[in-house]
Amino acid sequence: MKINNKVLMFSLMVLCFTSTAHANRGMDKVKSGAKAIFTSPLEIGTNTLEQVNKNDNKLFGLIAGLLEGSGQMVNKAIGGLVDVVTFPIDC
After folding, report:
1. Which residues contact 13 (CB under 8 A, 6 or more apart)?
2. Rg from Cα positions in the chain
């Protein structure tokens, strides 16, 4: 019986220390997700400038950049939202 109590106490101590270590990871996930959500509109401007500079036809580059940037914005915002919503779940 004494051995079981020692094992139980040791297990509880390990559990207490590991749960505080995971707390920072969860908050980092929230911060990263919020940053991705708030900076996602910048993808439109970034991709538009890249496409305009890359293509000889500036109008085509503008349209392609706006479309590609919008897709990247949605992708980044959804990824950030998933991080914010699922931060308690440790992967």
Report:
1. none
2. 23
